[in-house]
Amino acid sequence: MLGSLLYVVWLYSWGIIIGILAIPALILPRAVNMWFIRTFARMVLLGLRLFCGVTVEFRGQDHIPGGACLVAAKHQAMLDVFMPFLIFKDPIMVMKRELLWYPVLGWTALRTGMMPIDRDGGAKTMRAMLKVAGKRLRQDMGRQLVIYPEGTRAAPDAEPDYKPAGIRAFYKALDAPLLPMVTNAGLCWPAHGIRRRKGKIVYEILPVIEPGANPKAMMSELSSVLDEASQRLLDEGLAAQGRSRIDL
After folding, report:
1. What are the tens digits of pLDDT across the range 139-179?
2. CA separation (Å) from 224 to 13, 111, 151, 227?
3. How many domains, the chain?
């Protein structure tokens, strides 16, 4: 537990340091602001290893296509919002609109072209978002839009609860390759609380789902590959911790 407490201090300390240093960068090109985000993400991983004995592995990056793509990712921990910046060249995160009110975080999100979403918005709001997403996705030779089909964090062994409307709309409107991405991060970094459990976290990118498929068929394929790979990583992560599913 001491390591977890020290890690919290490390995390917030680096957040303050990077946040202060990043303020002048708000007037500089977007790439400079992305550098600060990536630097913080690296500090997140370094602290995990030093204080909590947690290592992180990225797999399947050879599946990432050149140019724009849509990423449908499993979401188990706060860690998940940082890792796309180390996996992808130029990611766009779909984030809650309320986060824009946070000093530095909100400003940097706007400067780097993140996608704030109004969860209570109607069809008109969704159409406006899709239009903006299309423009941003094709910036600078193509960006990667990361969306969480479950909408919120879930425990590693939780029954999947996908919200298909959003991912179907993005898939149909953007006409871009779709990358499923899975993780077992929740085994080491629970959705709630400050405890970090020693182990190995994996982020794995699965083979691409090509654009142009029927949205319902796409959703069926996506949920199938996400669920199968998630179960595999769950067992792998538990084995690395010397645990089994009965311990969850």
Report:
1. 766 889 999 998 888 999 999 989 888 888 888 888 889 99
2. 40, 36, 17, 5
3. 1
Torsion of Cα atoms, 204 then 40 then 44 then 155, to 10°: -50
Q: Is residue 97 part of a domain?
A: yes
Question: What six digits make up the tokens of 186?
Answer: 């929740």
For 240, the token pair is 């690395």
pTM beyond cutoff 0.85? yes
- Is 222 within the bounds of a domain? yes
User: What is the chain's mean pLDDT, rounded?
Assistant: 88
Question: Using H for helix, E for strand and C for coil, what is the string for the chain?
Answer: CHHHHHHHHHHHHHHHHHHHHHCHHHHCCHHHHHHHHHHHHHHHHHHHHHHHCEEEEEECHHHCCCCCEEEEECCCCHHHHCCHHHHCCCEEEEEEHHHHHCCCHHHHHHHCCCEEECCCCCHHHHHHHHHHHHHHHCHHHCCEEEECCCCCCCCCCCCCCCCHHHHHHHHHHHCCCEEEEEECHHHCCCCCCCCCCCEEEEEEECCCECCCCCHHHHHHHHHHHHHHHHHHHHHHHHHHCCCCHHHC
In a domain, 206, yes or no: yes
In a domain, 92, yes or no: yes
pLDDT in tens, 25-60: 888 888 899 999 999 999 999 999 999 999 999 999
Chain position carrying tokens 């992180």 = 56
Instruction: Residue 169: give the domain boundaries.
Output: 55-247
Structure-token pair, residue 172 = 């149909």
